[in-house]
Predict the structure.
Amino acid sequence: MKFKSTAIAHPNIAFVKYWGKKDENLRIPLNNSISMNLGNLWTKTTVEFNDFDEDVVTINKNVAEGTAKERVIKHLDRFRNLSGIELKAKVVSENNFPMSSGIASSASGFAALTMSCANALKLNLSEKELSILARLGSGSACRSIPNGFTEWLTGTCNDDSYAVSLAPAEHFEIYDLIIIVKKEKKEISSTTGMQKFNPYFYARLAEVNENLNFVRKGIIERNLKTLGTYAEKDCISMHTTMMNSGLFYWEPETLKIMKEVWNLRKNGIECYFTIDAGPNVHILCLKDNKAEIREKIGELNFEILESKPGGKTMVIEESLF
Ligand code: 2P0
């Protein structure tokens, strides 16, 4: 008997960031976080449980080894435990954005893997249950399960830490211009980096609720100024917290683009930045300002990826093998 299915998921960009865990194993975060799925970017994953000799994982045409493979196998084990089967699996995953682009693929990767496994094994899980399972693979993956703009509710234990949709993708047409500063893989992963606890975490926790409230309000009211102002504030809050642990993800070009964003704003072109655990800058803007921002940043000679809001993680008919 074979169990096979394919799913598509989008990576997400956090407006209020997840940095730090209350529980490492269960990936329970210190604070709620809010993000937007990136509709133009995707991961597609096909999984088949069958009479195979071993689990084989292929990501972007390369056979995965080491930690990457172990993390996927651990996730497959969660599904084998849930369904009571012992069959090995073949997993093939493709991204339409290069792994080296600095865009985190673990969120879309574990969201797509979760959905394809659940559907292959006919587990009939709710969105909440899918989000919980995706979280165990990679924290931010739980936010890629629901549609559009999503909030990950911290919770207190495995069963109440998951993401919900605040608004669907078509609710608010904002654009994320991703300015690629550096393509290399970062030296310190987020998982490792966020374990380096320091006193700035307390300062961050004292301000994060305000950031959450305003970003949520900005999304609901379709107000980029409210959303962007607090997303920028939260980005700086997370990065100063990181810096206090000795983690400097910014490059000189990162700061150059941040200043260009402030310049553009001074000149009446509305845009805001946010930055993940890396040097690349995400510029948030409305459709009307997109061309002008691209032109200005283009003058600085950076590669730019573009995305609008994306939908939820879904099963698709297409199969990768
Ligand atoms: C976020 N990041 O909220 C933040 C902003 C990076 C900076 O979620 O250990 O790969 O697998 O739960 O999800 C990246 O962390 O970490 C992340 P794990 P994950 O998007």
Summary: The chain has two domains: 3-168+310-316, 171-307. The pocket of 2P0 is lined by residues 14, 17-19, 27, 33, 104, 106, 138-140, 190-191, 276-277 (CB under 6 Å). The domain at 171-307 is CATH 3.30.70.890 (Alpha-Beta Plaits).
